[in-house]
Amino acid sequence: MNIDQTIILGIIQGLTEFLPISSSGHLVIFQHLIGLRSPELLLDISLHVGTLLAVLIFFWADITSMVTESIGFVGTALRKRRPTSEIKHSPHAALSFWILIGTIPTALLGVIFNLFVQEMFGSTCLVGFTLIVTGAILGASRLIPDHFTKKKEVGLISAMAVGLAQGAAIIPGISRSGATIVCGLFCGLSRDMAGRFSFLLSIPAIIGASVLKFDTAEITEIGLIPFLAGILVSFLAGLTALKITMGMLRKGNLYYFSPYCFLAGTVVLFIT
Q: Which of 63, 50, 62 is CA-nearest to residue 10?
């Protein structure tokens, strides 16, 4: 894997991880259509580290509030024996709790279907079909009336549903961000909360995937420069994609990505 391919993969990973067009699907397409082979394990981890840093920086205010409120709530609850139901008065602590709940179905689906999904990465035909499915999911977001998406708090049903959507997005071609955001909207979450919850929920998923893939024996497989380049490029591309997606989501224009997914999926099916 040379530095040019590292940069290409970093851009693809960073942009498509957060634009609702499927990072895994695009990596499969580029690997098959222009001769890019699968990135070495450690390079793949570096790309995920870059996108993780992008989420942490973009949502830094939310994350710091979640940490401080959660610590404060737990400390107060232990000292004064406050009922856990009072967490609703600490919105960022509650958000931390719902992210924990949403991570459970994601992890279960990932463990159960991991081996099955790995074989899917060899099928560009399948990716073409699932990209069309992603296009349909994004297009469906236009059918949701504005008055329906008003909830400012996540709740158990929304957390579990979005967690399941994230777990299903391990299938290459299904956009993680697209599936989770649209699912949140159908659960009645406001556009801003649906986007924030989707991307904050990705943090434990990205960390978990990186930890499971990490192998010290693979450290010598790539050089330090490609490793750092992968982090930097995917980080910058990820920040850009986050800004674009959140901006379009707040304007109710997420469905703008639908035609692209339909076109990309159709082209892939036609070629393969």
A: 50
- How many CB atoms are closer than 10 A to CB 224? 8
Mind listing the pLDDT tens digit for each residue in 113-153?
A: 776 766 666 678 888 899 999 999 999 999 999 889 889 89
pLDDT in tens, 47-70: 888 999 999 999 999 999 999 999
Measured CA to CA, the distance from residue 271 to residue 208 in angstroms comes to 34
Contact 98, 155 (CB under 8 A): yes
Report the DSSP beta bridge partners of residue 151: 189
Rounded Cα gap, residues 269 and 272, in angstroms: 5
Mean pLDDT, rounded, of the chain: 85
Please give the Cα distance from 98 to 163 (Å, whole number): 10
What does the block give as tokens for 149?
A: 């998406």
Domain boundaries, the chain: 3-271
SS3 103: helix
Residues in CB range of 133: below 8 A, 6 or more apart = 173, 174, 265
